[in-house]
Design goal:
Layout lengths: L7 E3 L4 E3 L9 E10 L16 E8 L10 E2 L11 E3 L13 E6 L9 E8 L2 H4 L6 E10 L5 E6 L9 E10 L2 E11 L2 H8 L6
Parallel strand pairs: 1-10
Antiparallel strand pairs: 2-12, 3-7, 3-9, 4-5, 4-8, 6-7, 8-11, 9-10, 11-12
Length: 203
């Protein structure tokens, strides 16, 4: 058939249109995944705690977070509009494929939201002394929910060390189309630093 398109693999900083080449695309699943780097254990060292990465989606108005209810994550699984829904927390990142998934109803996202940012943060990173230097094989991919076809994939590579939060990518509106920007920028200070970057104070 003519519709077995290859997934587009992106490099950091690359932008690609999502809806333009996929007419009628409405519901997508954003899958995020990661693996824990195997750590060398000393003979008597305590067993390291598993790294619990959490994916979030931030709905932005003029590039800013207007309301902390616009952060969809394990503590707020469904956006109040129903258009962005987190499919549930994964505590270890074990196994193949997506570790966490966020379902998006592109066609119904409120008109004032022109950007949805996808982030991954390490839960309790300061207490557990963990960072993205201990995480590998991080990726984001966007799948057409109706066909299961992977449309876009961005592998983050291993260029993080002390960061505890990463903005993986952003879906954004441009001339009526949805596009994706592979961002891959890291922050120290977890979700709070990240929300600060987007202009909101979190308790």
């Amino acid at each position: 058939g003519g519709n077995s398109k290859m997934s587009i693999s992106l490099q950091k900083g690359q932008k690609v249109s999502l809806t333009k080449d996929n007419a009628g695309l409405s519901r997508v699943v954003v899958g995020l995944g990661w693996d824990e780097v195997k750590q060398k254990k000393g003979l008597f060292a305590p067993k390291p705690q598993p790294i619990d990465c959490d994916a979030s989606a931030l709905l932005l108005v003029s590039g800013k977070l207007v309301d902390n209810r616009d952060v969809v994550y394990y503590g707020n699984l469904k956006h109040m509009t129903g258009t962005v829904q987190h499919m549930g927390d994964n505590l270890t990142g074990a196994g193949e494929g997506d570790d966490e998934q966020i379902q998006i109803e592109l066609a119904l996202i409120p008109a004032n939201v022109e950007k949805v940012a996808f982030t991954v943060t390490i839960y309790d990173s300061d207490v557990r002394r963990q960072n993205f230097g201990q995480v590998s094989n991080s990726f984001i991919r966007i799948v057409d929910e109706s066909t299961g076809q992977e449309l876009i994939r961005y592998d983050l590579g291993e260029d993080f060390s002390i960061e505890t939060a990463v903005v993986v990518g952003e879906l954004y509106r441009h001339n009526g189309e949805w596009k994706f920007n592979a961002i891959g920028s890291g922050f120290q200070g977890g979700l709070a630093a990240l929300c600060g970057h987007y202009g909101i104070e979190v308790a």
